[in-house]
Amino acid sequence: MKRLIFLGPPGAGKGTQAQTLAQEWNIPHISTGDLLRQALKEQTPLGLKAQSYMDRGELVPDQLVQDMVEERLYQSDSHFGWILDGFPRTVKQAAFLEQLLQKLAQGSVKVINFDVPDDVVVARLLQRGRKDDSEQVIRRRLEVYRSETAPLIDFYGERHQLLTVNGNQSPEEVSAEIKKQVIAS
């Protein structure tokens, strides 16, 4: 049973690893960004609600994102494992997820923290070449990430669920390290 949460700054390689390992382990890769895009495309009730916030230029509220994650974890392909990428982002969301997983009788979650130096993340994101990714903007996103998500490292550390991998290696080396840690724990 592999239930993994991937934590790490933008550009740490979470999405790449989630796709690779989910495919290898035949479990769903659940990305909140993908869930949102899918809900908008299918015009689901949650998607329509999210659309109304986005049309006003507002962030989609936590509760709505949580509802989408809950709906996704109830689907049958999630019963035997999953990789969550991009959720939870805050301790409040982590507490919600903990309760949800108890309700679903899905325990034994491991949290993989991708440790990557800021300079490496900045270089990676600049290479992606997105027009809104100036070094200043990227460093600001890293500050926001640290302030919002760093408390999650303590949250999961206190629960002995946290595993840290060196994200500053080749994708193959990162995958190998994740597999080794997940099997060992």
Overall description:
With 185 residues, this protein is α/β, with parallel strands linked by helices. The protein has a single domain, classed as P-loop containing nucleotide triphosphate hydrolases (Rossmann fold). It has 8 helices and 5 strands. It has helices spanning 14-25, 32-42, 45-55, 62-73, 91-103, 118-128, 135-158, 171-184; strands spanning 2-7, 29-31, 81-85, 110-115, 162-166. A 5-stranded parallel sheet has the order 2-3-1-4-5, sandwiched between helices. The model has no long low-confidence stretch (mean pLDDT 92).
Question: How confident overall, as mean pLDDT?
Answer: 92
Order of helices and strands: EHEHHHEHEHHEH
Q: Give, in spatial order, the strands making up the sheet with the most strands.
A: 2-3-1-4-5
CATH hierarchy, class: Alpha Beta
Radius of gyration: 16 Å
- Count of domains: 1
Task: Give the DSSP E fraction (strand runs of 2 or more residues).
Answer: 5-15%
Assign the structural class, choosing from mainly alpha, mainly beta, alpha/beta, alpha+beta, or little secondary structure.
alpha/beta
The CATH superfamily is: P-loop containing nucleotide triphosphate hydrolases
How many beta strands in the DSSP annotation?
Answer: 5
